[in-house]
Amino acid sequence: MSSYPERMTVLLAIIMSCVGTHNGWAADDLEVPQVKEGLTQEIEDFKDPDLWIRHDLWVETEFDSDGDGRLDRMHVDVTRPRQTDTLGIKLPVIYVSSPYFAGTGADGKEYLWDVRHELGEQPPQHEHPPAIERKDTRPIISKDEVKQWVPHGYAVVHSASPGTGFSQGFPSVNAENETLATKAVIDWLNGRASGYATPEGDESVVAYWSTGKVGMTGTSYPGSLAVAAATTGVEGLELIIPVAPNTSQYHYYRSNGLVRHPYGYLGEDLDCLYDFIQSNPDVREESNRIVRDTEFAQNLDRVTGDYSDFWAERDYLRAIDSVKCAVFMSHGFNDWNVVPEHSYRIYQALKDRGVPCKIYYHQGGHGGPPPDELVNKWWGHYLHGIENDVMEGPRAYIVREDAKPSEPNTYDDYPNPAAESVTFHLIGGAPERGRLVTAAEPGQGTETLIDNFSFNGEALAQAEWTQHRLIYLTEELQQPLHISGVPRITIKLASSKPAANLSVWLVSLPWNRGWGRPRITDNLITRGWADPQNYRSLEESEPLEPGQFYEMSFDLQPDDQIIAKGQQIGLMIFSSDKDFTLWPDPGTELTVDLDATTLTLPVVGGAEAFALALEPVDPNEDDTDR
After folding, report:
1. What are the contacts of 124-128 at 24+ separation with CB within 8 A?
2. How far apart are CA 83 and CA 46, in angstroms?
3. Per-residue pLDDT at 456 exceeds 90
4. What is the pLDDT of residue 175?
5. What confidence category does residue 516 fall into, taking pLDDT thresholds of 50, 70 and 90?
6. In this structure, how many other beta carbons lie within 10 angstroms of the beta carbon of residue 272?
7. Strands 34-36 and 25-26
8. Residue 342 pLDDT > 90
9. How far apart are CA 626 and CA 617, in angstroms?
10. Could you tell me if residue 236 is left (phi over 0), alpha (psi between -120 and 50 degrees) or otherwise beta?
11. pLDDT over 70 for what percent of the chain?
């Protein structure tokens, strides 16, 4: 029995053979794509949404994650111009996959983990939210990307992740079945996987209108699934444009061995995200029992925060060698939800392997795609085969502090190739402010801070005098200073207890207290977190011997920022970060060996540029070359 799309194709072909033309165009005169200066243009005949074909189907995968003895099928929708039927035009596909399309879980602190407990203790189990009421997403799962790209000569496809909406299987929160689900859809678009008109039936649906060339995009979790698809090396996936993708759940919920939460979601962990996306009532009870209440409960490990095989399965860097498609990544340097290392680590690995890739960074928070013109060029080049300059010139687009997101500067690469590591040393000053200098002054001894989660990082950075943090400042900058890359701290410290939080902020002072909302780049440069118990390894923590000194090194989050004239760069060391870490009882003491602690900053122009930035400029001097 033929499918509805197949029957319509035959009928429309008969009609067109009688009419012979379409809106004044001869059938073989419709130019797709239409290109001007390397960019696809809207095609007049594709612009009317009332004339688009919309339908859904289920694509069969290669896994049975719900254990019912049948391969799971993913719910997929298609939006395409009617000319794919009336004129037999084949089009490339822009594809978005997500677990969010059919509804998401309830918000509420009671559905997250309670962070108010001692480190090393097993926290009490949190409540689970009410079951998600599944949205009716048939036949259209989502309208994302449709209005923008169908008129440009693309079909747009969406799919719901396993165990969400009308897709079968269990949600795994970025484990293997979610990756293979995206691969199955791309295989179907290339004729290698089977599509069906119903979730259980055998009426086939074929993507006869697809050229087989596919590009994926999406922000946050959908961006993650674009990266996931790329790690399969599936044929036909030509390009991904992930925006703020979570590329490792460990790096989302942990940091250098420390239990750390995404900004704005204090107490969230992988099981909470599972509850937030599990929207298929047909498999909910069994899915909860097997995935959330067994696998996750046994492996989350909110006591030690150690890296394990459970987390490795949800880390796309482990499969990076399989990526063959081009990649254009986008991220915000001040994204404290999905922190910027998520894109940075993937981008660096792709460059090392010779994969065609570029990166777009802006100074804002979570989300933020590249400018439309750039995206247009990438889709056009890799999906339509348009010859343009998309892979020529600089690799990095970076939006400067005062610029519009649509007007990034271009740089040869990120980090800036002119950046060089400059090492800074600590000069004591607690409980007030110490100094941050490039020439070590031995004999600084130790300084101690007292943990107290009641004070957030912003208050600690602004404090003139406090026992709850240590802070060290450079001299005041007489000229702007450009930082580009990944700062790194080496710290030697002792704790008064067997476990302690360790938080590090890099700030720009004085703090902007002016009217209006300060820019996000005014005061916070970057930050990082670590568990001193993991000073040897991420895989195994060791209880600290109170009073004994331990040394560890770790990266702060990547950044590219121009620090303004008149500011001082400050290294702030404290324990519990109120917005990110667990909240143990106040009182834990961290003692830092100043002589054995250093900060390395990636400064454009290196030590010479930093020295020049501290020198006053004679107003009569020609400073063109500075």
Report:
1. 126/267, 126/272, 128/275, 128/288, 128/292
2. 8
3. yes
4. 97
5. low
6. 22
7. unpaired
8. yes
9. 10
10. left
11. 93
CA dihedral 156→58→290→310, nearest 10 degrees, is -40
What's the rounded Cα separation, in Å, for the pair 366 and 243?
Answer: 9
**H or E element, residue 17:** helix 4-19
Of 534, 572, 566, residue with least CA distance to 119: 534
Let me know: does 302 contact 531? Beta carbons within 8 Å.
Answer: no
C-beta contacts of 125-131 below 8 A and 24+ residues apart: 126/267, 126/272, 128/275, 128/288, 128/292, 129/105, 129/275, 129/276, 130/105, 130/106, 131/278, 131/281, 131/284
Q: Which two tokens stand for residue 5?
A: 């799309």
Q: Please give the structure tokens belonging to residue 141.
A: 């799962």
d(CA 333, CA 144): 25
Cα(213)–Cα(93) distance, integer angstroms: 6
The whole-number pLDDT of residue 401 equals 94
DSSP code string of 238-299: EEEEEES---BHHHHHEETTEEB--TT-TT--HHHHHHHH---TTTHHHHIIIIIIIIIHHH
Provide the b/e sequence for 139-173 (b: ≥16 CB within 10 Å): ebbbebbbeebbbbbbbbbbbbbbbbbbbbbbbbb
Query: In the 8-state DSSP scheme, what is residue 320?
Result: G
Give per-residue burial for 403-432: e unless 16+ CB within 10 Å, then b. eebeebeebebbbbebbbebebbbbbbbbe
DSSP codes, 186-224: HHHHTTSS-EESSSS---B---TTEEEEEEEEEESHHHH
- Tell me which residue has tokens 């792709």: 350
Mean pLDDT, residues 46-69 taken together: 97
pLDDT band at 512 (very low <50, low <70, confident <90, very high): confident
Going by C-alpha positions, the residue among 274, 252, 486, 243 that lies closest to residue 366 is: 243
Q: What is the DSSP letter of 411?
A: E
Percent pLDDT > 90 in the chain is: 91
> Residue 475 pLDDT > 90, yes or no?
yes
Q: How far apart are CA 161 and CA 222, in angstroms?
A: 10
Instruction: Name the one residue in this structure whose structure tokens are 């959908």.
Output: 222
What is the DSSP secondary-structure string of 27-76? GGG--SSEEETTEEE--GGG--GGGEEEEEEEEE-S--TT-SSS--EEEE
Statement: residue 7 has pLDDT above 70: no
Q: Which residue is associated with the tokens 């390009």? A: 239
Amino acid at 82: R
Q: Is 438 helix (H, G, I), strand (E, B) or coil?
A: coil
CA distance 17 to 87: 10
- Nearest one of 243, 217, 240 to 230, comparing CA atoms: 240
User: In this structure, are residues 229 and 322 in contact, taking their beta carbons and an 8 Å threshold?
Assistant: no
> H helices of 66-124, where?
83-86
**What digits encode the pLDDT tens for the residues 96-140?**
999 999 999 998 999 999 999 999 999 999 999 999 999 999 999
DSSP three-state, residue 562:
strand
The tokens for 122 are 């097993």
Residue type, 448: T
- What are the Cα distances from residue 233, in Å, to 18, 92, 99, 236, 273? 44, 18, 22, 9, 27
Higher pLDDT, 8 or 82: 82
Q: Give me the active site residues, please.
A: 220, 335, 366
Q: 86: which DSSP letter?
A: H
- How far, in Å, CA of 114 to CA of 378, rounded? 44
The C-alpha atoms of residue 478 and residue 563 are separated, in whole angstroms, by 11
Task: Answer whether 0.85 is exceeded by the pTM.
Answer: yes
